[in-house]
Specification:
alpha/beta; UDP-N-acetylmuramoyl-L-alanine:D-glutamate ligase; 9-stranded mixed sheet; 4-stranded mixed sheet; 8 helices; 32% helix
C-alpha cells in the first residue's frame, strides 16, 4: 500500500515544555509506516526550528517528504494539556498553514498513490472534486466536528469517512446513515473507550477496544484510522478492519505524544 497523507501538520506543545510533531495526516502517514506500508506527506512548514524538526522527524520515520514545502514564517503549533491522560487542546497558531494550497504538481503526486488521506483542517476540501475525478481513493477524518460546514462539502468526494463521537446511540447511527447516503462507501465513528461503529449502507458493525494503561490519548484516533486503512487495503473483513484499528490505537496510547521521534 502507498498512502498519500495531505493537509495540516503542527507541533503539539505540552505544558511541560516538550513539543511533539503531529497533525492528523502526518500521524496517519507515520502510523502506516509503523505498520510496514509506504507513505508520503504533502503540506507546508515554516522556516523555523519546528519546521526543521518536523522534516527531520518525518524523514527519520521513512515518510516521503518530497512534497513537504517550506514557507517563510512559523510552523503551526497547538497548545496541549494532559488531564488524567486525556489530551485537552488549547490555543492553535496556524502559522504558514494558513497559506497552504496544492499545486498542480502536488495533485499529480497525490494521485500516484493507492489512497489519499486528509482531514478537516487540511485546507484541501475544494481540491477534492478534482482528486476524485482523477480516480484517487480518498479517506477523510472529520474528527468530532459533525456539524462543521466542510462535512457536507466533502462527503460527495470521499470514499471512507471517519468521525469521532462518544457512544453507540440512536443519534450517531442516524448521523452515519445520512453521511453514508451522501457519497462514502464506508463511514466509521470512533467512540473512545466505547469502541467503534461502522456503517456500509446496509448494516452496522461494532468494534471493541484493546485495554491498555493509558499514558496519553494523543494520536489514538489517527492510529486507529491507519490500522483500519491498512486492513481495508489488504481486503480484510470490515469487523477485522475495526479490530486492527483498535489494536494499532492501543500501541499509541502507551506513550507521550502522537509518536516517538527518532532523532
Amino acid at each position: 500500500m502507498r498512502l498519500a497523507a495531505v493537509g495540516d501538520n503542527c507541533m503539539d506543545a505540552y505544558k511541560n515544555g516538550r513539543a511533539y510533531p503531529g497533525g492528523n495526516p502526518v500521524n496517519v502517514a507515520v502510523y502506516l509506516r509503523r505498520l510496514g506500508e509506504q507513505a508520503s506527506y504533502t503540506g507546508v512548514v515554516g522556516d523555523d526550528e519546528y519546521g526543521d524538526l518536523m522534516k527531520k522527524a518525518l524523514a527519520a520515520k521513512g515518510v516521503d517528504i518530497s512534497h513537504l514545502h517550506t514557507l517563510p514564517g512559523k510552523t503551526a503549533v497547538t497548545q496541549v494539556e494532559l488531564v488524567n491522560g486525556e489530551r485537552v487542546f488549547g490555543d492553535y497558531d496556524e502559522g504558514v498553514m494558513a497559506h497552504f494550497q496544492l499545486s498542480l504538481d502536488d495533485r499529480r503526486f497525490l494521485c500516484e498513490h493507492d489512497l489519499i488521506h486528509t482531514g478537516l483542517w487540511g485546507k484541501i476540501e475544494h481540491d477534492l472534486p478534482d482528486l476524485h475525478r482523477r480516480g484517487g481513493l480518498i479517506s477523510f477524518d472529520f474528527a468530532d466536528k459533525l456539524e462543521h460546514p466542510t462535512v457536507s462539502l466533502a462527503l460527495p468526494y470521499v470514499d471512507l469517512a471517519f468521525f469521532s463521537y462518544t457512544a453507540d446511540d440512536a443519534f450517531i447511527r442516524d448521523f452515519l446513515r445520512e453521511a453514508q447516503s451522501k457519497g462514502p462507501g464506508l463511514v466509521v465513528a470512533t467512540l473512545g473507550e466505547n469502541g467503534s461503529l461502522l456503517y456500509e449502507g446496509r448494516n452496522f458493525i461494532t468494534g471493541g477496544i484493546v485495554p491498555v494503561e493509558v499514558v496519553d490519548t494523543m494520536g489514538a484516533g489517527d492510529s486507529f484510522i491507519a490500522g483500519f486503512l491498512r486492513g481495508f487495503w489488504l481486503k480484510h473483513g470490515l469487523a477485522e478492519c475495526l479490530r486492527l484499528g483498535a489494536e494499532n490505537a492501543s500501541q499509541t496510547l502507551r506513550y507521550m505524544g502522537a509518536w516517538e521521534v527518532d532523532l
